[in-house]
Amino acid sequence: MSDLAGRPAVLGLPFDGASSFLRGPASAPSAIRRVLHAGSANYWSELGIEVDPADWDDLGDLDLSDSAAEAIEPIAAAVAELRRAGRPVLSLGGDHFVTYPILRGLAAAGDRVTIVHVDAHPDLYDELDGDRLSHACPFARIMEEGLAERLIQFGIRTTTGHQREQIERFGVECFEVRTWDGSVPEIDGPVYVTIDVDGLDPAYAPGVSHHEPGGLTTREVLDVLHTLHGRGVEVVGADVVEVNPDRDIHDMTAMVGAKFVRELLALMR
Ligand code: MN
Ligand code: MN
């Protein structure tokens, strides 16, 4: 542990080389930072906790190539180093591929986490178009490699037959929007939160590559986060992924991302 233990670190991951449909999320870290610091909102989370930039460190963007295979090691190494120093890590994607190397880094540092995952998609494909590192596959890799204790999904509304088999195979707790009652299961131990903003309805988050109608409200996602806080859950890491500034309208979706950043930083304090 270092003297920075407990102090949140923010890491930009400007990578969209694993996106299957559109590029764009590589520019999300800078878009989210811009609106976070634009002065239109203050730095207080809804929980009554101020996340003043003086109390956390933005480490800037990792220098990543366009190859997912080549991005695994630098992402995992950066996250592992921060976790070994006892620091919570909030990553700004990037497409959802990045969560796989992040979890490798957590596991290398000894974290045994439950993943709380918001997404329209289960992202459990064994492969997509022959690509096992596609942004549609990260949770298949994570569960195969035993990088998480549990995977709990919210916002899901695109499940295929194959992905239902994967949910069964890996014991994923998948709460599809169609039948979700708003509750969050009890969780023991540390948590990693991953928010793919396409889990929200496109009405709330239009700046994403895959518009999937029928999603969560911003408030429902905030409720999940605040429920974790209310239970005193330890959040050791989190990411906000799949914001696509090329598709955004007046930075609306970047602002949703910035809102989640503020609330997640509050959960890490
Ligand atoms: Mn996803
Ligand atoms: Mn998605």
Per CATH, the architecture is 3-Layer(aba) Sandwich
Strand tally is 8
Structural shape? globular
Q: State the helicity in percent bands.
A: 25-40%
**Strand content range:** 15-25%
CATH topology: Arginase, Chain A
Give the number of domains: 1
Mean pLDDT: 97
Separation, N- and C-terminal Cα atoms: 17 Å
- CA-atom Rg in angstroms: 17 Å
Alpha-beta classification: alpha/beta
CATH homologous superfamily (4th level) name: Ureohydrolase domain
Low-confidence stretches: none
Bound molecules: manganese (II) ion
Describe the structure.
With 269 residues, the chain is α/β, with parallel strands linked by helices. The protein has one domain: 3-Layer(aba) Sandwich (Arginase, Chain A), CATH 3.40.800.10. Helices cover 30% and strands 16% of the residues. The protein has helices at residues 28-36, 68-84, 99-108, 138-144, 161-170, 218-230, 252-267; strands at residues 9-13, 57-61, 89-93, 114-118, 150-156, 173-176, 191-196, 235-241. It has an 8-stranded parallel β-sheet, sandwiched between helices. The chain is globular, with a radius of gyration of 17 Å. The model has no long low-confidence stretch (mean pLDDT 97). Residues 119-121, 196, 198, 210, 242 line the site of one manganese (II) ion. Residues 96, 119, 121, 123, 196, 242 line the site of one manganese (II) ion (MN).
